[in-house]
Each structure stands twice: as C-alpha cells, then as structure tokens.
Amino acid sequence: MNVSDFNLGYQPKCSVYARKLKKGKTYYLKYYLPNGVRVRRPCHEQANMAQRLCALKERQLLLGEFDELDREHLGAAKAATPNRPTLEEALTLYLEATKSRKGPQSHAHDKSALRQYVAFFQGQGKIYADEVKAVDVQLLIGHLDQRGLAVATLHGAVRMVRKFYNFLIEDAELWEGKNPVPKKPLLPNRGSKVRNRLANNSEIERILAIDPEQLPNLAGQPVGAMIRFLVFTGARLGEVLHAEWSDFNLEQGTWTIQHKPHCPTRNGLGWSPKWNKSRKIELFPEALQLLKSLPRLPTVGLVPIRNAQGKITGHQAHQAEFVFPKQVARRDGKGNRQVTWARQDSLKHSWASIKKAAGVANLQIKDLRTYFNSVLRSRYGLSAKEAGAYLGNSAEINELHYTPLSTGEMSKKLQRLSLTEAMNLQMNLHQSGK
Question: Which of 81, 174, 325, 353 is 20 to 30 A from 291, alpha carbon to alpha carbon?
C-alpha cells in the first residue's frame, strides 16, 4: 500500500504528548493518516525513546509504510473527523459523567456555577470548548470580581473551570491540548481567602435577643429556634436544615450527624454531611433544652421532579420529621385554607432581617460556627483536634478557617505577666533542663 493511493499532497507529521496514568507517566504518538483519520497510541514510558519512535513513525508514514493498526483505520468505510464539542455539549457531558460521584447538592451547585461560566464564554463569542484560551479565563475572573464576589469564591471558580477542562482533555480525551486555566491566574489581591471575622459577645447577645415572631414576614417560621441552635452547637446550616428527630437521642443528649438516603432535600432524595464525614456529638444543656421545648410536627420535604432536559416540572412531597420546619399555608380547590409544615431551605432573607433588627453588620451564618469554636477553644480549653472533632473538621481546617485572631484575648494573655518575668521563667526552665 503506497501513500500515492490516497493523496499526493499528504504530508505526515507525528507528535508526542504525555499522559499521567495510575501507573505513572506514559508517552503517546499522535498523527493523521492520508484519509484524515487521527491515530493516538501509547509508545513508551521514557521521553527520549518516545521522541525516537516518533521520528521513526513519521519516516514510515512518509514512505507509505503502514502497520496493522494503520491499515485497520485506512480500511474504514468512513473517514473519521476530530471530535470538536461545543461548550454546551461539553458541559452536558461533564455533568452526566460526574453526577454519580457527587451528592445531589454538590451536583446542583456545579451545574448552576458552570452554566454561568459557560454562558460568559459564549457571550465572548466562543462556540466550541477548545476555543477558550487563558485570556478568556482571565476575563471571567475579572467579570466575577466586578460582581463583588469574595476572593474564596473566585478561587473556587478557577478550580471548577480547571477541573472541567481537565475532564475534557485528560479523562474524556476529546482533544489534545493545554488546559486554558493558567497554573497561576491573576486573582485580585484584596484580602485573604480565609474569613477572619470573630463575633463578640455583645453581637451574639443582640442576635439572640431578637424575637423573629415580631418581625414582618417571619411569623410562623423556625428562624429564632434555628439560630439559637446554631449558636449552641456550632453546626453547619445544612446540618440544622436537614436535622430530623430520629437523629437525636434526647435521653442521652446526643446528636448523630450521618448519611440519610431517604431524607428529602431541595435537590433530591438523600442527604450527607460535608465530606460524607459522620459524627456523634454530646449536646450542651442549652441545645438539649431547646430541642425539648419544640413541638414534633408532621412534616414533608418537597423533592423536585425534572424532565429529560433537567428542568423542574413539579414537586413530590415525601414524609419526613424535620426538627425546624416552616409553616406553609395554601388554599385548596374549595378555597379553604390548609396549613402544612415543610422543610426550611434557606435563612438568607430572614437572617438579613434579624441582623438589621439587632444592629449587627457584616455577620454571616457561618460566623456563629466560628464563635462557637472560639468558645470551645478559649473557655473549655479544647485542642484544635478536639474542637474539630466536635464541629466535623480536621485539626488543620479548624485551625486555619475557624480560629480567627482575637486581639482582645491576645492582649489579656500578654498582660498576665511582664516580659522580664516571662524571660526569667524561660531561662530558668532552660537551665533546669541542662
């Protein structure tokens, strides 16, 4: 078989690229045959040998010498063309491929965020996924920064786009190329990724003193009890929103936070704690007393029903036993008022109303968790590992993200004794150790 049988203008060119596999790095050859079929094949685990094999293969192609694999592709009835997915096709493929290894909430978050990023690229005139370059990613960062998003959110967006393209290029192998997300993208230098906000006792007291029942649009909602429970446990908001009576042993005063496959959530059936990390904690008397004061109401969780395109077409009610349900009033077909108790999905607007009434600014729900951690560390003397076990964090994460600096506490510690006394104690300790 000779090259002239195909195309006299055929100019073979072979190249080498590396792929990281579980067993290590492997080098691949890439070239096109005269009928336009692209061939990719492993050749060697050493770079220098791969380059030598590449030169040899290019010479063979020039001479029209095709091996068995090449002849198989040359004999295909239909010449293949390189797969070039659009941004929309690439997004659909990524979401379907990663759905099985993510929880419903994580998958919904990825879907919502990536749709925004893809829409931005499309607004820049990009149609195909491989048209996005490093400059487009940098423009996306600037666009998100102009919206006033936190630095941590910008870092998260960069990581998500990088994972998206790693999947397309390395896992799905849709094309060879370089990930358009730079290794060190230019991010705004306006503060740390770690929030360093520690609520003081006065702010917490003012928050707890607010009665949500007296605020507009909050009557009949579990906001007050939920916020008190957040302060008394340091739990994550999602853990409290999905807390059910069966999770608690009120006699022993414990709360088990674990995977619940039948718990109805806003994204589907099944709820898991962050990182799927279960824990069992001993409740403080304040939290236990709060639980005992609450009524046990028949509750439901509305789970979305989606069509083939993923759009929500309705909701299905599932029986549940939520501890902090909200009141939902509707009129039936005859105009009669019916009241049910359903899962509370968010505290965004009610939290803003309570902060405004309490005169507290720049305080996030998760700052209550940070405050609780500071109480565990400074008042109870728990180590970072012990406090992390209670909160569901590793010791490192607890130290980095949930232990902000309190200048007041530091000042009190520094005033316990003079510097001279401290130095004398240190020297005495050193001398006694000799």
Answer: 353
Q: What is the 3-state secondary structure (H, E, C) of 210-264?
A: CCHHHCCCCCCCCHHHHHHHHHHHCCCHHHHHCCEHHHEECCCCEEEECCEEEEE
**267-277, pLDDT tens digit by residue?**
889 999 988 89
pLDDT of amino acid 120: 95
- Contact 100/110 with Cβ under 8 angstroms? no
Residue partners of 380: CB distance under 8 A and separation at least 6: none
Count Cβ atoms below 10 Å from residue 97 Cβ, excluding itself. 13
User: What mean pLDDT is reported for the chain?
Assistant: 84
| Secondary structure letter of residue 172 according to DSSP | S
Beta-bridged to residue 246, according to DSSP, are none
User: How confident is the model over 274-288, as pLDDT tens digits?
Assistant: 888 999 999 999 999
pLDDT at residue 162 tops 90: yes
